[in-house]
Design a protein that fits this description.
255 residues; 9 helices; 2 domains; 5-stranded parallel beta sheet; Alpha/beta knot
Length: 255
């Protein structure tokens, strides 16, 4: 897979995506990364890439022509999937990251800035708009790096073992169970006994139940679409009864 990022700040993306797990994956050839300075494709001596919008709105808008020239020069005869990082887009989730990783299509990611991008170039590139949340940032660089990081870590060869990400939050529709490391006792707090028991079946059951509990308490809406077994549903019923009883107890105690 090849990932091209068009931005006014290529050094930011290069620095982050050249580090840690993603950086090692790049060095191993799991994917290719190229960050492109949009200003290099400006058509005047001042390398101007923005102008005022045709509206009463304040601020500046990235012009179509420098972006289009950058796109043509980078893409050539290839036909990558074009993504524009935008708060107007559908919110990125793990399902979308899996879809992009499994497709193994080349990606051309455009980072907006100022008040955004001239709509005509987005239409011409047939860009899909993707958001990282219902809020606005000063530019698309952070969202682009999040998207690239999330996709790359799912590619074969990035992580040492597939279950490094298969057990993680959201991969299978649930939040991840709590994790612990050495020492076994820290500041009076102990690792749950089951995790040091060596009994694999019990450990797997504990993981699943804790994953269900974390999701029930923190993101209950995820349970509506998560793939649940009859055993999962029975455990969730127990959880619900337990927390209802607790709520009634504290309500009565502090009434």
């Amino acid at each position: 897979m090849r990932i091209d990022i068009a931005t006014l700040f290529p050094e930011i993306c290069e620095t982050y995506l050249g580090q840690s797990i993603v950086g090692r994956a790049r060095n191993k050839g799991v994917f290719e990364l190229y960050c492109h300075q949009i200003r290099d494709y400006a058509f005047d001596k001042h390398r101007r890439v923005d102008d005022t919008p045709y509206s009463e709105r304040q601020g500046m808008l990235l012009m179509a022509e420098p972006i289009w020239q950058c796109f043509k020069a980078v893409v050539g005869e290839r036909k990558p999937k074009v993504i524009y990082m935008s708060p107007r887009g559908k919110v990125l989730d793990q399902k979308k990251l899996k879809e992009l990783a499994e497709a193994r299509e080349d990606l051309f990611i455009l980072c907006g800035h100022y008040e955004g991008v001239d709509q005509r170039v987005l239409d011409r590139m047939e860009a899909e708009e993707i958001s990282i949340g219902d809020y606005v940032l000063t530019g698309g660089e952070l969202p682009a790096m999040i998207l690239a990081d999330g996709v790359v870590r799912l590619l074969d060869g990035t992580l040492s073992q597939e279950d490094c990400f298969m057990d993680e939050s959201h991969y299978n529709g649930l939040l991840e169970y709590p994790q612990y490391t050495k020492p076994q006792v820290w500041d009076g707090y102990e690792v749950p006994e089951v995790l040091v028991s060596g009994h694999r079946a019990n450990i797997l059951r504990w993981r699943r139940e804790k994953s269900l509990e974390e999701t029930y308490l923190k993101r209950p809406e995820l349970l509506k679409t998560a793939p649940l077994t009859p055993q999962d549903e029975a455990y969730l019923s127990e959880l619900e009864a337990r927390y209802v009883d607790m709520a009634e107890f504290f309500e009565g105690k502090f009434r």
